[in-house]
């Protein structure tokens, strides 16, 4: 999550400490505020991608901060924290421009999942890297990392391995692979798929074909551990 700015505003120090530690470990650039006025000022200066905003705060409440931030036209994902599980409170926050809400008490995993969902929706270019089992795909850098080692891949090998990883557990025929990786106008032989699969297996150390399996007469299937 490097390069993603997150502003955390809550008047309860233990919540600030708990969330700040977890979000720092995920690589976010964090700023914190314990009242609404400070949150609004920091939002203007820091220009966060994500604003985690408690509803009940001194100086200005979360609703007022949310409305003020959204009125500036800033592209920021606002997630409200509320101790109230009332429909009216949720509707009020969303009507003022909030993008999501989390009801206290909540788990860090729930909040983190909602942060990632908002980033995928509003800032997809920031999420260049995604994890799939032992693989990490960084589409911005066109890098594929396997077991913490960056693989040396040609552009076609990168496209092929990415396609197989993203379709983990699904049997892919040679025709499907050719259409998706080489393009439907490819006029060569289907055997080129076998050549590239063999090369990928070598680079992955998959000598026993446990990672990329061959289903004879059908195609290939990635089986992630």
The major sheet is characterized as: 5 strands, parallel
H/E series: EHEHEHEHEHEEEEHHHEE
Helix fraction, binned, reads 40-55%
Tally the helices: 8
Strand order of the largest sheet: 2-1-3-4-5
CATH topology of the largest domain: Rossmann fold
Estimate nothing, just give the exact number of structural domains.
Answer: 2
Q: For the record, what is the CATH homologous superfamily label of the largest domain?
A: Response regulator
Q: Topology, pairings included?
A:
Blueprint (H helix, E strand, L loop, with lengths): L4 E5 L3 H13 L3 E5 L2 H11 L3 E5 L7 H10 L5 E6 L4 H9 L4 E4 L4 H15 L6 E4 L2 E4 L4 E4 L2 E2 L4 H12 L7 H9 L8 H14 L7 E4 L3 E4 L3
Descriptive overview:
GO terms for molecular function: phosphorelay response regulator activity; transcription cis-regulatory region binding. This protein is α/β, with parallel strands linked by helices and 225 residues long. The protein has two domains: 5-126, Response regulator (Rossmann fold); 129-222, Arc Repressor Mutant, subunit A (Orthogonal Bundle), CATH 1.10.10.10. The chain is built from eight helices and eleven strands. It has helices at 13-25, 36-46, 62-71, 87-95, 108-122, 155-166, 174-182, 191-204, and strands at 5-9, 29-33, 50-54, 77-82, 100-103, 129-132, 135-138, 143-146, 149-150, 212-215, 219-222. Strands 2-1-3-4-5 form a five-stranded parallel beta sheet, with helices on both faces. Helix 6 packs across helix 7 (174-182) and helix 6 packs across helix 8. It is elongated, with a radius of gyration of 23 Å.
């Amino acid at each position: 999550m490097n390069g993603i700015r997150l502003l955390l505003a809550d008047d309860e120090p233990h919540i600030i400490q708990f969330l700040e530690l977890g979000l720092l470990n995920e690589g976010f650039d964090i700023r914190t505020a314990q009242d609404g006025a400070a949150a609004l000022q920091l939002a203007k200066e820091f220009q966060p991608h994500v604003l985690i905003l408690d509803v009940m705060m001194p100086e200005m409440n979360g609703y007022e901060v949310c409305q003020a931030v959204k009125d500036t036209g800033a592209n920021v994902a606002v997630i409200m924290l509320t101790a109230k599980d009332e429909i009216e409170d949720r509707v009020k926050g969303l009507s003022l421009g909030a993008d999501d809400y989390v009801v206290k008490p909540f788990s860090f995993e729930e909040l983190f999942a909602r942060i990632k969902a908002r980033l995928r929706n509003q800032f997809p270019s920031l999420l260049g890297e995604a994890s799939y089992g032992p693989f990490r795909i960084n589409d911005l850098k066109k890098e594929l990392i396997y077991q913490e080692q960056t693989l040396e891949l040609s552009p076609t090998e990168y496209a092929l391995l990415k396609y197989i990883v993203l379709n983990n557990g699904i049997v892919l025929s040679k025709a499907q692979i050719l259409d998706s990786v080489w393009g439907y106008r490819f006029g060569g032989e289907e055997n080129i798929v076998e050549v590239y699969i063999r090369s990928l297996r070598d680079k992955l150390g998959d000598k026993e074909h446990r990672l990329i399996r061959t289903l004879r007469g059908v195609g290939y299937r990635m089986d992630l551990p």
